[in-house]
């Protein structure tokens, strides 16, 4: 005779213990808790699930140490490998490190990207290095003698010529006033009587896009390096003519040292800010002759810039183009600290450092990544003027005679191929030296620099970047570190934390 369970009808559910793969038993209450937890996890976003999973990992604290060591880098490089330091005489292992015990068997290092839109943490370090690099060439420090502050020094701005009339902000004045009005051959007004604010999106846009010489704009960018080289050569030649020296004799007497930064104007064309200093032939340690003055250097800069006149080869599709600097040239003397007249050295170094971190997304004159095909240009977040420049760059890059310019590879920078900041060899220290100094300060002397040791390293790139949850944690660490620096700076200045700056 069959007997029903007492709770078969209307009673509590039949609870049978679950058997695990190892043969153990999971109590019904524990099984329900596990299922409830899984259900709650499914209700969370992907980022929240990623954060919880990472935080519950056994090596989470070590992973946090790596993130802090990178300063909260937004796009770290993942490396795997090892380094072993041995005594050169005995072969004894002094130090060994490998990534087998690290989270994911990898080590995270900084991406070192200068753009704040890509990595705020690394761009902040790059700006600091740039500040010290430029400042050392103005007032000394970082292996540069302090006597450089007494040398003839200028801060100058070289601009590009006009490729067509554009709208401009003029501090309350009319944009492009024309007394007689008139229209171009494309039936567009050749003037503009409006007053544009600096934030007006029309500023920098051509009055007539058809009249604007887009190919000349791109070719000028592609040859900007040659234009700067011609300018520095002219400086030596014109200076020799002014003081009555032969060119070779002058180069044995003085040395022109510089650091320059390229900045995009609102019309999407580069202009150059440069710090120029006159030294003796031996460099920063060698003073220049008594006749070398800031006024003489300023006069020479004007004539040297005006005399630059290059010509491109004749191309059947484009003809021949003349390459010059623009008529607008700004020259200002520099002063150390607060004495005398002219721009302060610290202010110039801070200006250059601030601009160096700006990416294309901030300036709106291109993209921060290379263009792979023409379709990307159509969807780039840029103005119509910049999009036309990018298309022109892509089209010119397809011409066989312009292949050496690699215009398609540099369409995202509108054909400009130079670095944002460059300097002459003897101007001041280097980025590599500044990074090495910071590393030694943070970690102590490197055993690899000891001549009595031999170091063997084997490293391999395996990945880069963060998962969504890891990126959120890294961003929080970067903000905390930045805030700690602000508090330390306020205390140094004698201000209360969070007080007025």
Describe the structure in brief:
The chain is α+β, with helices and mostly antiparallel strands and 501 residues long. Helices cover 35% and strands 16% of the residues.
List keywords for this structure.
14 helices; alpha+beta
Net shape: globular
Mean pLDDT: 86
**Proportion of residues in helical segments:** 25-40%
Strand order of the largest sheet: 12-11-6-8-7-13
Number of strands: 14
* End-to-end distance: 91 Å
Number of DSSP helices? Answer: 14
Low-pLDDT segments = 1-12
* Percent in strands: 15-25%
Q: Which structural class matches the secondary elements?
A: alpha+beta
Radius of gyration: 31 Å
Oligomer class: single chain
Largest sheet report: 6 strands, mixed
What's the order of the H and E elements?
A: EEHHHEEEHEHHHEEHEEEEHHHHEHEH
Describe the structure.
There is one protein chain. The chain is an alpha+beta fold and 501 residues long. Helix content is 35%, strand content 16%. It has 14 helices and 14 strands. It has helices spanning 28-42, 46-55, 60-69, 120-139, 214-222, 224-243, 247-251, 294-306, 345-356, 360-363, 374-378, 384-397, 431-443, 468-492, and strands spanning 18-19, 25-26, 77-87, 93-98, 107-109, 153-158, 254-264, 270-280, 310-311, 322-323, 329-335, 343-344, 421-423, 453-464. A hairpin with a 5-residue loop joins β3 and β4 (93-98). α6 (224-243) crosses α8 (294-306). The longest helix has 25 residues, at 468-492. The chain is globular and about 95 Å long. The chain starts with 17 loop residues before the first strand and ends in a 9-residue tail after the last helix.
């Amino acid at each position: 005779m069959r007997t029903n369970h007492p709770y078969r009808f209307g009673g509590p559910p039949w609870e049978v213990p679950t058997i695990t793969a190892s043969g153990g038993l999971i109590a019904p209450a524990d099984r329900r808790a596990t299922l409830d937890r899984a259900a709650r996890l499914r209700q969370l976003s992907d980022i929240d699930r990623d954060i919880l999973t990472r935080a519950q990992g056994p090596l989470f604290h070590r992973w946090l140490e790596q993130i802090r060591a990178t300063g909260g880098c937004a796009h770290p490089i993942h490396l795997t490998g090892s380094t072993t330091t041995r005594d050169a005489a005995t072969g004894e292992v002094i130090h060994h490190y490998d990534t087998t015990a690290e989270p994911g068997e990898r080590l995270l290092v900084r991406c070192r990207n200068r753009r704040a839109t890509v990595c705020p943490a690394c761009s902040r370090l790059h700006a600091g290095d740039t500040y010290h690099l430029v400042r050392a060439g103005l007032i000394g420090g970082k292996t540069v003698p302090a006597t450089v502050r007494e040398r003839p020094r200028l801060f100058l701005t070289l601009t590009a010529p006009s490729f067509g009339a554009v709208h401009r902000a003029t501090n309350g004045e009319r944009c492009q006033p024309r007394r007689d009005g008139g229209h171009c051959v494309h039936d567009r007004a050749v003037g503009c009587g409006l007053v544009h604010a600096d934030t007006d999106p029309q500023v920098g846009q051509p009055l007539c896009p058809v009249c604007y010489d887009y190919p000349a704009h791109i070719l000028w960018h592609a040859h900007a390096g040659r234009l700067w080289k011609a300018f520095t050569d002219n400086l030596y030649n014109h200076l020799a003519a002014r003081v009555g020296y032969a060119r070779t004799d002058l180069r044995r007497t003085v040395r022109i040292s510089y650091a320059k930064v390229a900045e995009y104007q609102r019309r999407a064309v580069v202009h150059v800010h440069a710090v120029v200093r006159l030294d003796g032939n031996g460099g920063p340690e060698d003073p220049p002759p008594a006749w070398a003055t800031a006024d003489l250097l300023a006069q020479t800069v004007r004539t040297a810039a005006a005399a630059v006149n290059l010509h491109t080869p004749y191309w059947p599709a484009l003809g021949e183009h003349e390459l010059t600097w623009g008529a607008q040239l700004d020259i200002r003397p520099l002063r150390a600290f607060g004495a005398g007249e002219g721009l302060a050295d610290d202010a110039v170094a801070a200006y250059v450092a601030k601009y160096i971190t700006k990416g294309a997304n901030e300036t709106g004159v291109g993209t921060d990544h290379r263009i792979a095909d023409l379709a990307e240009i159509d969807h780039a977040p840029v103005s119509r003027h910049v999009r036309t420049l990018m298309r022109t760059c892509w089209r010119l890059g397809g011409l066989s005679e312009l292949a050496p310019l690699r215009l398609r590879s540099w369409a995202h920078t509108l054909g400009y191929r130079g670095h944002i900041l460059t300097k002459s060899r003897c101007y001041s220290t280097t980025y590599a030296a500044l990074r090495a100094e910071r590393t030694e300060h943070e970690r102590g002397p490197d055993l690899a620099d000891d001549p009595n040791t031999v170091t063997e390293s084997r490293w391999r790139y395996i990945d880069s970047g963060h998962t969504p949850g890891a990126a959120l944690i890294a961003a929080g660490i970067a903000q905390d570190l930045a805030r700690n620096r602000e508090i330390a700076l306020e205390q140094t200045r004698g201000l209360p934390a969070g007080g007025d700056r």
